[in-house]
């Protein structure tokens, strides 16, 4: 699953970051557009052309990792933080202090569950990733063992903050808590146990 | 949040279902493409044109609901099942028996977390939705109270099955269990408590 290196990472970034952002905007716009059906059909023709161009040579399977990117801690295909994945919010995780992280994000129309609100499963997706990030230490990867999500109140679409912090460690287990905050209110709480594989 | 009705739902469906599928393929292709940067730039130009067309008239906020679609139980903007949301797998949930549902799906490169595997948060997103569907009864909506996810083993990208079933009910609470199954193995288990709002 490790891909060959990328010749010029910065040149690739300069093309793929804005391209991915445009597709991200396209997703949001497709959900919200109110143009007539003829305009939608014309847009579809352009998307087919983009697909023809990008689809001419496609790697099998998934993006996986590439040694150059892995060294930089940049999984470009990742669904939550990937530079080349338009489904990624993307989440920009900040290390606030050892074992404590946060991320401020805008969650738009494409993440809707109940009308006007973030899908509960998207809340758990974000919390899974942020709690993992709090448990992570360089050179010591962890995987999620269990995750418990408590929905305190509905989470409105819009500006959202995720926070996570390590409570304690015991052997190979790291106990982490976290929450989502919307307009000063905690909307979802989480606790997770993250496990370090045996060396 | 309830939108005005759609003049001709079937005409809209005939345009938006294939358009959304093309954007879904575009997301997957953007993650996996290996074309040169000039081709990627040319694809970007087409995507900008599609955006110009679709962005000419956009509803504020999110898709929310529309009375015609709500009657049919079709939230077109929903991130997991929405006809107009290319982030949706989409999940096609089947009622196997009262209180028991399942969904077979293909989870592609765009849902990657660990290389070659489904992001743990995507597993929880799918389980949240499928457990909710098991708890749902017509005219009796529920919201997720708590959700507990246990990761048994990594979930490979590819064909995946989600199952959920009601264990028991107590007052306004419905206790539900579920799991993800990949190639005959349970990879993730879930249990949730779903709550019916006071009438």
The CATH superfamily title of the largest domain in chain A: Hotdog Thioesterase
Question: Could you name the CATH topology of the largest domain in chain A?
Answer: Thiol Ester Dehydrase, Chain A
Gyration radius over CA of chain A:
19 Å
Which outline of chain A best applies?
flat
Oligomer: homodimer
Helix and strand content put the structural class of chain A at alpha+beta
Distance between the termini of chain A: 20 Å
- Name the CATH class of the largest domain in chain A: Alpha Beta
Spatial order of the strands forming the largest sheet of chain A: 3-4-6-7-8-5
Strand content of chain A: 25-35%
**How many β-strands of chain A, per DSSP?**
8
**Domains counted in the coordinates of chain A: how many?**
2
Largest sheet of chain A: 6 strands, antiparallel
The sequence of SSEs of chain A as H and E is: EHHEHEEHEEEE
Catalogue the unreliable spans of chain A: none
Fraction of residues in helix of chain A: 25-40%
Mean pLDDT of chain A: 93
Annotated CATH architecture of the largest domain in chain A: Roll
Structural description of this entry:
2 copies of one chain form a homodimer. By secondary structure, chain A is of the alpha+beta class. Chain A has helices spanning 9-32, 37-54, 67-72, 120-135, and strands at 2-3, 65-66, 94-97, 100-107, 143-151, 158-170, 173-182, 185-195. The mean pLDDT of chain A is 93. At the A-B interface, helix 1, helix 2, helix 4 and strand 5 of A face helix 1, helix 2, helix 4 and strand 5 of B. Chains A, B: It is an enzyme of class 3 (hydrolase). Chains A, B: Belongs to the THEM4/THEM5 thioesterase family. Chains A, B: It holds the Pfam family 4HBT.
């Amino acid at each position: 699953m490790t891909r060959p290196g990328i010749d010029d990472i910065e040149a690739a970034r300069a093309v793929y970051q804005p391209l991915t952002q445009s597709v991200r905007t396209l997703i949001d716009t497709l959900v919200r557009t109110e143009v007539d059906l003829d305009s939608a059909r014309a847009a579809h023709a352009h998307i087919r052309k983009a697909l023809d161009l990008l689809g001419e040579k496609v790697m099998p399977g998934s993006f996986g990792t590439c040694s150059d990117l892995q060294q930089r801690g940049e999984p470009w295909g990742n669904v939550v933080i990937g530079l080349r994945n338009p489904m990624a919010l993307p989440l920009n995780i900040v290390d606030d202090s050892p074992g404590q992280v946060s991320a401020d994000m805008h969650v738009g129309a494409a993440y809707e569950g109940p009308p006007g609100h973030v899908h509960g499963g998207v809340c758990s997706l974000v919390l899974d990733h942020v709690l993992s990030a709090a448990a992570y230490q360089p050179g010591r990867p962890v995987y999620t063992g269990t995750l418990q999500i408590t929905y305190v109140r509905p989470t409105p679409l819009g500006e959202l903050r995720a926070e996570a912090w390590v409570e304690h460690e015991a052997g190979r287990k790291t106990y982490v808590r976290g929450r989502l905050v919307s307009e000063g209110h905690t909307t979802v709480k989480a606790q997770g146990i993250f496990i370090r594989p045996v060396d």
